[in-house]
Amino acid sequence: MEGDFFKDPIPDGHDVVIVANVIHGFSAECNLELLRRIRGRVPDGARLLLVDFWTDPTHTQPLFAALMAGEFLLNTGGGDIYSEEEARGWLQQSGWRVLEQKPLAGPSSLMVAETVK
Length: 117
Hints:
The chain is built from 3 helices and 6 strands; from the N terminus they run βαββαβαββ. The protein has 117 residues and is an alpha/beta fold. It has a single domain (16-115), classed as Vaccinia Virus protein VP39 (Rossmann fold), CATH 3.40.50. The N and C termini lie far apart (28 Å).
């Protein structure tokens, strides 16, 4: 479905939502808003699969992800690379609980979260 997930209605009723390689394109404030908007459109018990380039708290490792931060800022005007801890904080603030994190091929990893009742 085509649209702007900050302006257009997010489809509701889904029990799984995948957000892949989106977070790095936006500011921290926009990411928190997006996660809140998604939470508001899914039922209790829904899962969120959040894939992106997560770094350590110093934003220096993994090196490839850290190097991509400049490119994301230049290409989007507000994007960045975020740490796992930052993402976990946004999820908690927006009504999600992280269940697990799994490494994927390359510098990306998957966070699996579920709604908090």
